[in-house]
């Protein structure tokens, strides 16, 4: 304390000097399902672009997943024809820009910088549109660039995979990876519109088309037992991509994800609970441990099975219910074990368990993991018994070995 100065007395805050700012912001955006979105006589995209301001040609910058561009070589010309037909309402600022597909687009910040360069160079402002065509990773990355350019330009998503149509495409999150951490850099930014074209699914690899169903299984398990029953009864049709079954699955899954986001009480994840991430604490870590050789949908299927067995071991889920879950996932054609689950870290612990710490750090607050109290009933817990996790992993391993020997 300085010599000659009396000690300062702590003063209670004066309530009269505290001014509370309160306001609410309403978000709304259409989620549509269609076919042949770029057919000139399909007005869906043009209507979405002009839904607020009429009588002008809105400027649009389009990014296309490299995998989609390669599979649909005529897509560029179809887009340009569509814009020509609807020129009174929309205009391309440049030819569609092809970006890396898959997790690669999320692993390098240079990809985001490249997108921001396109937004800047072509004068895309907050009344113009960025349109993302691709799988979930591309939607995440393009959405991230759109959200930070000018503090947010309008984003229209055109999901092209099962997983992005039934889950990630309808949400409000955008993110990329950083130094091996899944979705470390990101934003909450609701899109302007989500337009799903079922035709894109026809050219997906079987592996990707099947693994995308895992998110439908997940949301059924935590929120809708009747939907889980439907998935069970239609597993054979889903496994061979029967169009009616596949479209019903995607629509219902998207509806349940939308309901949770809108009515779950925490759309921007200000709390510690993330029910839509059931099975994901292990899935995200498994993706990283395999350097993304295991896709997100495949990892989620394994995470679902792992947490179902753990829920039984922890006394939350009635014994036998995990077999229904495993049967469904296997019937759909998903693998439920990977050797990387057995990797030991430098401290002698299963490396997969580090996913719990990273899961908690991602949100902050106390650890909150959604498990199962029944089919269609998610329950939050705040502690995880690592010994039971190891036991659940061994169970998955033994079941995989029995399945391989059968």
UniProtKB/TrEMBL annotation:
<protein>
    <submittedName>
        <fullName>3-dehydroquinate synthase</fullName>
    </submittedName>
</protein>
<keyword id="KW-0057">Aromatic amino acid biosynthesis</keyword>
<dbReference type="Pfam" id="PF24621">
    <property type="entry name" value="DHQS_C"/>
</dbReference>
<feature type="domain" description="3-dehydroquinate synthase C-terminal">
    <location>
        <begin position="212"/>
        <end position="338"/>
    </location>
</feature>
<keyword id="KW-0520">NAD</keyword>
<dbReference type="InterPro" id="IPR030960">
    <property type="entry name" value="DHQS/DOIS_N"/>
</dbReference>
<keyword id="KW-0028">Amino-acid biosynthesis</keyword>
<feature type="domain" description="3-dehydroquinate synthase N-terminal">
    <location>
        <begin position="97"/>
        <end position="208"/>
    </location>
</feature>
<dbReference type="InterPro" id="IPR050071">
    <property type="entry name" value="Dehydroquinate_synthase"/>
</dbReference>
<dbReference type="InterPro" id="IPR056179">
    <property type="entry name" value="DHQS_C"/>
</dbReference>
<keyword id="KW-0456">Lyase</keyword>
<dbReference type="Pfam" id="PF01761">
    <property type="entry name" value="DHQ_synthase"/>
</dbReference>
């Amino acid at each position: 304390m300085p010599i000659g100065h009396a000690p300062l007395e702590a003063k209670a805050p004066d309530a009269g000097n505290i001014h509370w700012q309160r306001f609410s912001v309403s978000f709304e955006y259409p989620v549509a399902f269609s076919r042949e979105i770029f057919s000139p006589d399909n007005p869906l995209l043009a209507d979405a672009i002009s839904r607020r301001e009429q009588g002008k040609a809105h400027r649009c910058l389009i990014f296309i997943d490299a995998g989609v561009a390669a599979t649909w070589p005529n897509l560029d010309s179809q887009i340009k024809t569509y814009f020509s037909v609807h020129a009174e309402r929309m205009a391309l600022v440049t030819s569609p820009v092809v970006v890396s597909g898959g997790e690669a687009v999320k692993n390098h910040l240079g990809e985001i910088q490249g997108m921001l360069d396109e937004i800047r160079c072509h004068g895309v402002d907050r009344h113009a549109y960025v349109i993302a065509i691709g799988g979930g990773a591309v939607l995440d990355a393009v959405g991230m660039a759109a959200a930070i350019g000018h503090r947010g330009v309008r984003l229209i998503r055109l999901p092209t995979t099962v997983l992005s149509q039934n889950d990630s495409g309808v949400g409000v999150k955008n993110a990329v990876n950083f130094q091996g951490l899944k979705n470390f850099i990101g934003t909450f930014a609701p899109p302007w519109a989500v337009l799903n074209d079922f035709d894109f699914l026809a050219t997906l690899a079987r592996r990707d088309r099947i693994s995308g169903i895992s998110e439908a299984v997940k949301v059924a398990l935590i929120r809708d037992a009747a939907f889980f029953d439907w998935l069970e009864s239609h597993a054979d049709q889903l496994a061979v991509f029967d169009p009616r079954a596949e479209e019903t699955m995607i629509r219902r899954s998207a509806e349940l994800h939308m309901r949770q986001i809108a009515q779950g009480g925490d759309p921007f994840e200000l709390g510690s609970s993330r029910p839509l991430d059931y099975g994901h604490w292990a899935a995200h870590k498994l993706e990283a441990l395999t350097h993304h050789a295991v896709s997100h949908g495949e990892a989620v299927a394994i995470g679902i099975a792992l947490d179902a067995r753990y829920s039984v071991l922890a006394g939350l889920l009635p014994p036998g219910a995990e077999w229904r879950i495993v049967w469904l996932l296997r019937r759909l054609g998903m693998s439920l074990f990977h050797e990387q689950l057995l990797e030991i870290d430098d401290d002698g612990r299963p490396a997969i368990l580090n996913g719990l710490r990273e899961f908690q750090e991602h949100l902050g607050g106390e650890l909150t993991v959604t498990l199962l109290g029944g089919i269609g009933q998610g329950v939050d817990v705040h502690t995880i018994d690592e010994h039971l996790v190891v036991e659940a992993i061994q169970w998955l391993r033994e079941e995989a070995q029995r399945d391989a020997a059968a």
